[in-house]
Design goal:
16 helices; Isoleucyl-tRNA Synthetase, Domain 1; 3 domains; alpha/beta; Rossmann fold; elongated
């Protein structure tokens, strides 16, 4: 098996290539993830980003790193269409639901945490809300103004992209954009209004009389721009330069480009050494959109008879489906793909539950070198592919090679004495660790006493040839998602 000292490579959006991961402080990793704007229920896209960086968080911990993981909640400044004009998304929702903005924020943070817990996402070390750091954001804006890379107009402050790029010459590197083309495109599409160039972004916005969420600043009452918060929150808890900054592919431009620009001006750093982005999801090959009536929240997918798939799925079905596609590839979610993911997940989990209780009771070994090599090769694939930019589809493939071995042990086609005790212990330990600790997969199992009662009742009915009772027990078992398997030596239960 590859050791935890094997090299880990991650695709760095900033360098646009696979880079060997080398943390700044030896075995301590500092990671920041852009969280949601909390004005509505989390959807499948939110889940993919969370699962992607949960796998990274889990694997880094598995390798022995201490991870300091920070995630924000945007609760102010994110305007409609991700622009610098329009209404605040949270304020709009507050007016719609007739609640205070902070009631909206807390309501949807609570739902978001519930959804993430359902997906078995590890909680970050620190969760932050932008509104708790208004003074720090004002201080950053003042510093950027003082350095000459921002300008104030009518109570709003804008970052001067052209002046920034004339000196740093790096705006657009992360997303592969050309600044001259961006300036020309925005000039053609929009009136420049009070900005020098439409590509400039708001660090601070003047609030009109109707705006509920506003704070006093040197430029009058207003609120921070969307791109202002993450630089403040990340550097406050992780330092001026940290290891990993993550988010969805859609945040590369302009959000993350704008963060890097501010960080360069303030601290002469790119904010993070590794910029990692997960790709997007669509539904049945189409972009997920309310206007297309294919928008689905996690609450609907997990708990309600949604009108997209017309059935509910377990959170682990969705998590497993994400793992079957590389995080940098676009994923199209269909009812069939979710149902297929559920079947694959159950095969994995049933093998996990069997090997978990299996004991190595062997009097005399008769080692089969070919079987041992197959097991070792499968684990080599698993760990090498985890180190290859978290290539989870290949990891899953390697795990199913181990499942074949476990199922052959269960059926008797492979005898335990054909495997050394040392390899058996490693098989059991690594298989369970990868599934549970790294991939974060699990299913809720039935109570042990109920389990024993069901299987004993089934065996008794079979022994008595009471097939009417057998059918009743089978029906009951199906209703709680289990089935009976009759082997030549025993009867056992599988989850379905």
């Amino acid at each position: 098996m590859l050791s935890k000292f094997s090299k880990l490579f991650l695709f760095n959006s900033y360098s646009d290539k696979l880079d060997e991961f080398k943390p700044i402080n030896n075995w301590i990793v500092k990671m920041y993830l852009c969280g949601p704007t909390v004005y509505g229920l989390a959807h499948i896209g939110h889940a993919r980003s969370s699962v992607t960086f949960d796998i990274l968080n889990r694997y880094l911990r598995f390798l022995g790193y201490k991870v300091k993981f920070v995630r924000n909640y945007t609760d102010v400044g994110h305007l409609e269409h991700d622009a610098d004009e329009g209404n605040d998304k949270i304020q709009n929702q507050a007016l719609k639901e007739k609640l205070e903005p902070m009631e909206i924020v807390q309501k949807y943070i609570n739902y978001y945490r519930e959804d993430m817990d359902s997906l078995n996402i590890l909680r970050p070390n620190i969760e932050l809300q932008a509104t708790s750091y208004i003074n720090e954001q004002i201080d950053n804006v003042k510093s950027i103004l003082d350095k000459g890379y921002a300008y104030e107009v009518n109570g709003s402050v804008y970052f001067d992209i052209k002046k920034y790029n004339d000196y740093f010459k790096s705006y657009g590197k992360l997303s592969g954009r050309n600044i001259d083309e961006l300036i020309n495109e925005t000039r053609e599409l929009n009136n420049q209004g009070e900005k020098k160039n439409n590509i400039d972004f708001a660090l601070w916005k003047k609030a009109d009389d109707k705006h509920i969420m506003k704070w006093k600043s040197p430029w009058g009452y207003g609120y921070p721009g969307w791109h202002t918060e993450c630089v403040v929150l990340g550097t406050k808890y992780l330092g001026e330069l940290f290891d990993i900054h993550g988010g969805g592919y859609d945040l590369k431009f302009p959000h993350h480009e704008c963060e890097i620009a501010q960080s360069n001006v303030l601290n002469n750093t790119n904010l993070a050494n590794y910029w990692i982005h997960n790709n997007l999801v669509n539904i049945d090959g189409k972009k997920m959109s309310k206007s297309l009536n294919n928008y689905i929240t996690l609450q609907d997918l997990f708990y309600n008879e949604n009108n997209i798939f017309n059935k509910v799925f377990m959170p682990m079905d969705l998590r497993f489906l994400f793992l079957q596609t590389h995080y940098r590839s676009t994923l199209s979610i269909t009812k069939d793909s979710l149902e297929s993911a559920h079947k694959g997940l159950m095969k994995l989990i049933n093998a996990y539950l069997y090997i978990d209780v299996l004991e190595y009771n062997v009097d005399e070994n008769n080692i089969n070198n070919e079987i041992e090599k197959n097991i070792e090769d499968a684990f080599d694939i698993i760990f090498s592919e985890l180190n290859n930019d978290l290539n989870t589809p290949s990891v899953i493939s390697g795990l199913f090679n181990i499942v074949k071995v476990i199922n052959c042990i269960r059926s008797g086609d492979i005898k335990l004495n054909e495997i050394s005790k040392e390899l058996f212990i490693r098989l059991k330990s690594d298989f369970k660790s990868i599934i549970k600790d790294v991939l974060g997969l699990y299913v809720k199992t039935i109570d042990k006493s109920l389990f024993e009662y069901i299987i004993n009742s089934y065996k008794t009915a079979k022994y008595r040839n009471d097939y009417s009772e057998v059918d009743k027990i089978r029906d009951f078992a199906k209703n709680i998602n289990i089935r009976f398997c009759d082997s030549k030596d025993d009867i056992y239960i599988e989850y379905i």
